[in-house]
Design goal:
Layout (H helix, E strand, L loop, with lengths): L6 H13 L1 H19 L7 H12 L4 H11 L9 E8 L5 E8 L2 H14 L3 E2 L9 E9 L5 H11 L3 E4 L5 E5 L4 H10 L6 E8 L3 E3 L1 H15 L4 E6 L1 E3 L2
Parallel strand pairs: 8-10
Antiparallel strand pairs: 1-2, 1-3, 2-9, 4-6, 4-7, 5-6
Helix pairs in contact: 2-3, 2-4, 6-7
Length: 241
């Protein structure tokens, strides 16, 4: 559900993550390995690896597992080589979907993603077919009831681009990817604990889906997210639960 400020959708997403903790660990390990392979194993000079290690801590991944996989990725231990591949397509009602994967078998991954799209009412697109509808940003979402004025003061001072309050009272802070860590650290230092804090693909506009369309879209997203090689799914649907 990345990219949306609807509180019910956020809670649904967090519930889904709690249900599949083992799968979350696998995804975090892959992110650690790719980040370390691309940028080295030194957290002080590799911001992507820092974020991956923080994700690992958030889901209680053991520290020795983190270190072992950094060592694998940087050549200190023998490990599997993962490539990052992005797929794009359309869901119910023409909603745009981006699927980020990490895989050691390209043929398997594209076949599984294409099958999920076609079986559950979507269509695979070509590279660039929907990504222009999204922007790569840092996103922090705080619970309804949080002081909008205080969040805005802290976030904008730290380098945020925008602060948006949703109809349900949730507060969304948008940052350039390069300023994400600084803004998050400033918010936490001021006593704010974001429910969601990540660098993501945020849709520039959304499509509202209700009733049967909402149910079908959620099923499509769930099936794609459950594929072994999928790391993240982004879309522009506002799903009314």
């Amino acid at each position: 559900m990345a990219g949306h400020s609807k509180w019910a959708n956020i809670q649904h997403r967090k519930g889904r993550q709690d249900e599949k903790r083992g799968k979350i660990w696998t995804r975090v390990i892959r992110e650690i390995m790719v980040a370390a392979r691309l940028g080295g194993g030194d957290l002080s000079i590799n911001p992507r690896l820092r974020l991956a290690v923080e994700k690992a801590k958030a889901v209680n991944l053991p520290a020795d597992t983190v270190k072992r996989n950094i060592d694998k990725a940087t050549g200190n231990l023998e490990g599997v080589h993962y490539d990052e591949i992005r797929y794009e397509g359309y869901g119910i009602g023409g909603a745009a979907i981006i699927v980020d994967t990490m895989t050691d078998n390209h043929v398997r991954t594209v076949a599984e993603v294409r099958h999920a799209f076609s079986k559950y009412g979507g269509n695979m697109g070509t590279n660039g077919s929907v990504s222009f509808q999204f922007k790569n940003v840092g996103q922090l979402i705080l619970a309804p009831g949080t002081s909008e004025d205080k969040v805005m003061e802290v976030a904008l001072e730290a380098g945020a681009e925008d602060v948006i309050t949703g109809d349900d009272g949730a507060i969304e802070v948008i940052t350039p990817p390069s300023e994400f860590e600084a803004v998050r650290n400033a918010l936490e230092a001021a006593g704010f604990k974001p429910e969601i804090a990540e660098v993501t693909m945020r849709p520039e506009s959304t499509i509202e889906l209700t009733g049967d369309d909402a149910t079908r879209m959620q099923k499509l997203l769930d099936v794609i997210e459950d594929l072994d090689d999928v790391q993240a799914v982004f879309h522009n649907a506002e799903i009314q639960q």
